[in-house]
Design goal:
This protein is an alpha+beta fold. It is 23% helix and 32% strand. It folds into 2 domains: 120 residues, Ribbon (Umud Fragment, subunit A); 43 residues, no CATH class. It is built from 3 helices and 10 strands; from the N terminus they run ββαββββββββαα. Strand 6 and strand 7 form a beta hairpin. The longest helix has 20 residues.
C-alpha cells in the first residue's frame, strides 16, 4: 500500500520493510538488546561519500571495544530523538562529538544516546571494505584516520592546519 502523500518524514527500510525513524530506532534498540547486529537501508547524504543514500549498513552493538575517534556510530539525537549515523570526532568519559562527512558537527552527545557502531556497508550488492578494530587494528586506528584527514584537508584547504603550524596561507606544507 503506498504511503499517504501528507506524511513527509523520511522512511527507512529494514530488509525491504518501510519503517518510520521512530520505529527503526525502537527496532534497532530491541535487536541490540539481544546482542545481534541490525541491518538497514540508509537514507540521506550527511555521510556522503562514505555512506550513500540507498547503501545497506550494519550497526553492531558495542561489545567490549569502545568506539574511538573516526568510528562511524549510530546514536539517538538528543534534540529530536531520531536515529543518526555519523562519525565520532572526539570522546570524553560522558559525551562525544560527532559529525557527518558531508554536514556540520552535531554538537555534544551524551554517551547514553550511543546505540552501536557501523561495522559493514554494502553498495550495489557488494560489501565495501570496512576496518574492524578487532581484526585490523593498524588499519582502523592509524591508516584510515590518516587518509581521512588528508582527504579532508585537500577538500577544504589547509587554512586551519597552516594556522596550527604557524605558517602563512601562501606557504606550502612540505
Amino acid at each position: 500500500m503506498p504511503e499517504p502523500p501528507l506524511l513527509r518524514h523520511k522512511r527507512y527500510e529494514a530488509d525491504g520493510v518501510p519503517l518510520s525513524r521512530a520505529a527503526l530506532l525502537e527496532l534497532l534498540s530491541a535487536v541490540h538488546e539481544k546482542g545481534a547486529d541490525f541491518r538497514f537501508r540508509a537514507t540521506g547524504t550527511s555521510m556522503y561519500p562514505t555512506i550513500r543514500d540507498g547503501d545497506i549498513i550494519t550497526v553492531s552493538p558495542i561489545r567490549g571495544v569502545e568506539p574511538s575517534a573516526f568510528d562511524i556510530v549510530a546514536f539517538r539525537n538528543p534534540e529530536n530523538q531520531q536515529l543518526v549515523i555519523h562519525r565520532v570526532l572526539a570522546l570524553s568519559p560522558d559525551t562525544f562529538l560527532a559529525k557527518g562527512d558531508n554536514s556540520q558537527p552535531d554538537g555534544t552527545i551524551p554517551r547514553s544516546d550511543l546505540l552501536g557502531v557501523v561495522t559493514k556497508v554494502e553498495r550495489n550488492g557488494s560489501r565495501l571494505f570496512w576496518p574492524d578494530k578487532r581484526r585490523y587494528p593498524f588499519l582502523a586506528t592509524v591508516y584510515f584516520p590518516t587518509v581521512y584527514w588528508y582527504l579532508m584537508m585537500r577538500k577544504r584547504g589547509y587554512g586551519i592546519i597552516l594556522k596550527l603550524l604557524g605558517k602563512r596561507s601562501g606557504e606550502s606544507i612540505p
